[in-house]
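[audit] Reproducing an earlier prediction to check determinism. Same input, same settings, fresh worker. If the tokens differ from the archived copy the diff job will pick it up downstream; this log only records the rerun itself.
[audit] input (430 residues):
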Amino acid sequence: MLLYIYVYQPVMLGVNSGLHEVMSRDKLVYVALVNAVGVLAVMAGCAGGRVPRPTPGATRAFMPQFSRRVQDQLWRIGCLFAAVACLAFMYKLHHSGGLKVFKAIKPQVYAPNGYVSSLPMIGIPATILLAISRQGRRIGLGGILVALCAICEPLVFATLAGRRGSAFVCFITLGMCWCLAKNKLPTVRAVIGGVGVVGVLLLFLIANRQAARDDGADTSVSKHFVDELQSKTQSTSSEYATAAGMILAADHYDHYYWGRRYMVTLFIRPIPRAIWPTKYHDMGFGWMVTNPGLAGFTREQWEEAMGYKVPLGVAGGFVADMYLEFAWLYVIPLFLIGRLYRSVWLKWVSRGGVWSILYIELIGVSVFLPAQSVQAWLVRAMVLTIPTWLFWTFFLRRSHLPRRAASPSHASVTRHQLSGRRVSTIQSDG
């Protein structure tokens, strides 16, 4: 998805003159520069450093082997979380009007309470717990069905609405959890092949989701797929065009949030509306409720700065989102995002344990960076990783995690000089 939005789309726009009629060459070059620097900042954060050796007793596989009793407990907890996620999604679907919501261009399901709306996300850690409980055991049809119920919300949105983010979450979660249940790392060939297949599938979903909603429309999958690759990227409704508009609008009006938007997201958004009904308006961010898709600009301001109509329902991606927040200082948070992924990956390959789970969760939500925004990615990452860390710390690590056996590397060698002879004695840590 990163290559598609930040490489393929601008190349097609340049070849087919998709934006030349509404945007000058200087503006196009400037937008390309901003996007290139942002992507390079993330790549720089992911690069550098040396992979540490695994700590004594650790494994490069996903997880330590738990006892059967602990696995049974994790199975029951995973089933409970899966039931909560499934029931929460069914409640949201019923409250939003049922399956007819999927006839809309951008279908949404919601609940009166924000915390209830976030409950279906618990299905991802539920699937991970189910996978851990199946290590050394037969997965079985029942385990697969429970895992599918756990991720029912992204699964339904991927199949009925053609949501690429939901589809990516489904495939990454199920694929990584299969390896987790087998306690084996995927091969490089499997990773490259899987990423390629998922990428093509995401483009297929994008190309055919509108045709799937239109009764009697031409449903030729090849036609819509080719149209997606050749036609959409020539228009002003692509993600790259939206990102260009956000960058140019921010510069045109000299309007940057300097972290205030994310302060509202992190500290004001969790406060229930029952306690503070006008929280967004009181903080000066009422547009987050009334018109969240325009990044704080009016339609007239967008069209004046961009030179064309606002592409509704299309996000601008993480580079434009950070540029709108911090101007050219956006390279700092983007570098830190890349460093976060590298740090968690290094801890996964060197320590395993909870870092395996955190890495799966972060990879699962990574699609929201290029496809939506840093804000969309950050909220999902926090909802998943913070409870996971707390659960591991206070439930598994203190009472149920298998203790590592004593390792010879923990022994220390002390040399003594006795009667003119050198005698080496090995003193154990214990």
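[audit] rerun output stored. Observation attached for the diff report: The beta strands are 412-418, 421-427.
[audit] end
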